[in-house]
Amino acid sequence: MTIPWHLVSLAFAVCLVVAAPGFRRVYYFVSLCYAGAIAAQSLVFALLFSNTISGWVTLQLVLLLAYGVRLGAFLAIRERNPAYAAELARAERRTADLKLWHRIAIWLGVSLLFTLLFLPALLTLSLQAEGVWPVSVPLGVMIMVAGLWVESLADWQKYRYKAEHPSHYCDVGLYRTVRCPNYFGEMLFWFGVWFSGLSAYGSGWAWALSLLGLVYIEALMTAAAAGLERKQDERYGDRADYQDYVRSVPILFPWVPLYSLRKLLVRFR
């Protein structure tokens, strides 16, 4: 099917509104505004397609809403945690001197990204509204469920562990299998969203824009994992137990023997 540009424009407008609080605190653009934009799009289009949405497509939208609500709640709770205050303060200092035009560019950029991430769901909603069953949705939804479960459990395990052991890296639960299970879960979730829309990509634009959103978020999560690796190396690098941990537990993908993203990225420079 062709892209319903009027609906894409509406989705972009919703994201612009929800992302506006980022002008107050820049890091909101990629945290609370991110979660809010996904949840808001889910609600808006659930209402618009209320007469035609059903079955697996409904579950797809519910999962996107759950993703946004869960992430937003987690970020809001974490922001009130005194142990996280220093990191937030550093983020504010890094962005305090950003010019207005720079903030506007970030606002437009993240709003576009949030729109592209939601695009596969918008296309499956539109396809179902035309009376066509989007056959790729069931498997995509199953992948989304797996990703959401991994990310949610990983966030909860790390939050609980760091509350009790603030000066130690988290190496319990899912973190025994992979060092960044939360990022892996998010990558898996968005791959599931993209996969669910496969049967609705009826034009070159649909393929290009949906892939652009997927590639960007996957690259962003990979960069985030590399950044976390750098921070942990700086903080724990002189500890023998940490060195044993990073040599034996993969950085991002479970059971894939990739132990350092920083070293990998250096090779490609």
TrEMBL record:
Matches recorded under InterPro entries: UstE-like
UniProt keyword annotation of Nucleotide-binding present: no
Recorded superkingdom: Bacteria
Stretches that traverse the bilayer: 6-23, 28-49, 55-77, 104-125, 131-150, 183-201, 207-228
Signal peptide region: none
Gene3D superfamilies referenced in this protein's UniProt entry, alphabetically: 1.20.120.1630
Transmembrane helix in keyword set: yes
Name the UniProt record assigns to this protein: Steroid 5-alpha reductase family enzyme
Keyword entries, A-Z: Membrane, Transmembrane, Transmembrane helix
